[in-house]
Each structure stands twice: as C-alpha cells, then as structure tokens.
Amino acid sequence: MNPKPTIKGRGAQLNVHNKFFELSHEIRDDFLEYCAREGEEADKNKTLYLPVFPKTIVNKVESPDVGMAFSMNMYQGCEHGCIYCYARNSHEFWGYSAGLDFERRILVKKDAPKLLEALLKKKSWKAHPIVMSGNTDCYQPAEKEFELTKQCLEVFLKYKHPVAIITKNALILRDLELLKALAKDNLINVNISITSLSETTRRVLEPRTATIKKRLETLKVLSQNNIPVNVMLAPIIPSINSHEILPLAKAVSDAGALSIAHTIVRLNGAIGEIFADWIKKTLPDRADKVLHQIESCHGGNLNDSRYGTRMRGEGKIAEQINMLVRLARKKYFKDKAMPKLNTELHEQYKDGQLKLF
Predict the structure, then answer these.
(1) Which residue has the higher pLDDT, 246 or 355?
(2) Distance (Å, whole) CA 137 – CA 143
(3) Which pTM does this prediction carry?
C-alpha cells in the first residue's frame, strides 16, 4: 500500500454539497490555474474554531442499536478527520459540508459545563449514564485549548453522576486524576477506538488521531488505574482492516481492555461520496474492491439505515467478520466484563454535596 492523499493531514479530500442548500460551491480549474500563476494559495487548509450557544447540551438517543440513551458533545465537527465517520452528516445541520468543513470548521459549545450542571440539578432529572462523544470526539485537538471535557468531568464528579467517554486521543490521560476519582464510585467507563495495528492504515483512515502506540499505552495506563476500558474495533472495513480482528483483540486484551465492540462500516448520506472520492485518490489499487465488498455487506448499497442490520451488515463477508469478533471474544475476553455504572449516588448529591437528611 502506497497511500497518497492529495490534501495532507485531512481525511476528506473535497467538500461535498450540503443537501439542505439550493446553491452549491465549487473550486474550478481556471481558479486553481490563476492561483498558481499568482503564487497564491487556493485553500490554506486551516482549522477554525467557531463558538456556538445551544440551549441544551444533553441529547436523548432514540436509536435502538447504538448502546446509549443520552449523549453530549462539546464540539461539533472533528479535526481528527476520520474518513468513515458517521458524524460527518450532522455537520450539514449547521450549514456546513460533511467533507472538509467537518474537519476544519469546529463548533465550540463554551457553555457546555454550565448547561450540564443545570440539567443535573433539576429535580426531574434521574441519573442515567451520559456518553461524552456520542457524535464527535471530546478529546479532539480543540480540547487542548478549551478544556470543556475536563470541566464537564468536574461537574460529573461534583454531582456523583455516571459518565462514559468515547475517544481515540491520548489527551484523555491529562484528566487521569479526575477519572480515578470517578472510578472510585464506579461512575466512569472509557471506550477507546482502535481500528488497526498499522500506522500506515491509521494515518490514511484517521489522519489527526493519536498513534496506535499511544492508544495502546493509554489503554494500559487507564487499566492500571482501575478505570474500566472497552475497545471499539470500529468500523471494520473489508480489505482494509478486516484481517486484523484477531491480532487487534489480542493486543487490546493484553493491554488491559475488559471487552471489545465492533461495527461494520456503513457510508450513509454524504459519507458515501466522500469515502469513494477518498479511496480512489488514496488507495486506487484497491478502491473498487473495497467499495464492492462494503456494498455486499449492505444489500448492494454503501448506504444502510435499517435498525438491526446497519451495524452488523449481512451477507457472507459480514458473516465472516461477525464470526471473527465472536471468536476473538471467546479467545481473549472469556473471563472479562465491563462493570455497570453506578446510578445510585447522584440523588444524594443533587446540590453538589452529600445530603445528610
């Protein structure tokens, strides 16, 4: 494999049309030629942080097959740039493209900690695990500057409320002391996404994420500090990382993971066009094969929105992948399990401190 993305450091290689807009924007060849003659940059490829002010921060999740009931996202858009990311489509709701805009126009919800605290203090709110990063990574590069995830963890600790985290960034270790404090009362679990053991694969699939070595080290540190970790082998992409399921499972089990979960890649909405463009530019030698195998997992389509089948797929290739994951669980996680989060303490800490009466 000799991957050659045309826009370095990014997953998507274009901005696709926003389906909610009547008009579209394109960069024409004559404009590019003009920029070249004038010595100007047609696209500076910079990331912008844009403040937004939503009225709420916690969302009820209606989907029956994503394994969470409530989620929150301090950031919309994600600089990690994972080419397969299902969250890309949500950027269209904010008026941006699911392509490069998703990676370069990061919306920052600076009031997230205040909004979270207001919710947890409500008499009507009953404790239920809230997942940070249900859509975009709460430890993406923006977190270094804004520290919203850290502030929200402090709120969860103050009110003794259960929280789960999904991330693929080693920045989570910055908040190790907070995580340890939450873990003492069984109020935290972490889900780390590790999709490959190959740095070459990681760089093209997830260009601005932590290295595989860093993620395995992060997993080990969290586990050594009694913070329960599940590893997301997700998504599994035929002929890209599908051959790594067993070695991946062994590596994360050895590093301390208590369980694994997986999905088979699905390319809904604008993601199909973005992924197809990317793979034809980045991995042209296998592009058609990969796209056809993904289609074979979803009834002949890249797009699959059917509850019950969209995550696991169907057909022979999907069946092989799912069987390998079951085998990996039996082989490497036989006597392991993730603990259930504690929802019993929060009511006593509704005001941020223990009620004596």
Answers:
(1) 246
(2) 9
(3) 0.91
